[in-house]
Amino acid sequence: MSRRYIALVQLDLIVNPHARRLRQQPALVAALQRLSTGRARVHITSSVAELEALCAQLARRSRLVLFAGGDGSLMAGVSALARHCEGRP
Questions:
Q1: pTM of the model
Q2: Could you say which of 1.10.510.10, 1.20.810.10, 3.40.50.10330, 3.50.50.60 is the CATH number of the domain covering 3-85?
Q3: How many CA atoms lie within 13 A of 83 on its CB side?
Q4: Count of CB atoms situated within 10 Å of the CB of 52
Q5: Fewer CB atoms inside 10 A, N or C side of the chain?
Q6: C-beta separation of 43 from 13 below 8 A
Q7: Segments making up each domain of the chain, as ranges
Q8: What is the pLDDT of residues 54-88, one digit of tens each?
Q9: What is the 8-class DSSP label of residue 83?
Q10: What is the SS3 assignment for 69?
Q11: Which residues of the chain form beta strands (DSSP E)?
Q12: What's the CA gap between 80 and 49, in Å, rounded?
C-alpha cells in the first residue's frame, strides 16, 4: 500500500489498554494517541462487549482498522470485524 493511498484513507486504531505491555507502560497509550492525531481515529476499548459494538460500527464505515494490544486483542478484534463484515474484505 503506498503512502499516498494511506493518506487518503481514514484509519481507525483500536487500543486495548488492558494488554500487558500497554498496562505495564501506560505512556504508550498516550503516545499512540499523540502520534495518531490527524492520522487516525483512536478508539480505546475497555471490554470485549465494547470492542464488539465498535467493530459493528467500523465494519460499516471504515476501510482500514489497526489494533494495538496483544495477541488476544488482535484475535478478538479481527473475529469481531469478520462477524460484522458480512463477506466484505
A1: 0.85
A2: 3.40.50.10330
A3: 13
A4: 17
A5: C
A6: yes
A7: 3-85
A8: 999 999 989 899 999 999 999 999 999 999 988 77
A9: H
A10: coil
A11: 11-15, 40-44, 64-68
A12: 10
Single-letter amino acid code for the residue at 70: G
Instruction: State the amino acid at position 6 in one-letter form.
Output: I
Question: What pLDDT digit, counting tens, does each position of 5-60 carry?
Answer: 555 678 999 999 999 999 999 999 999 999 999 899 999 999 999 999 999 999 99
Residue indicated by cell numbers 484509519: 11
* Residue position matching grid coordinates 488476544: 72
- CB 45, CB 15: distance < 8 Å: yes
The kind and range of the H/E element at 53 are: helix 48-61
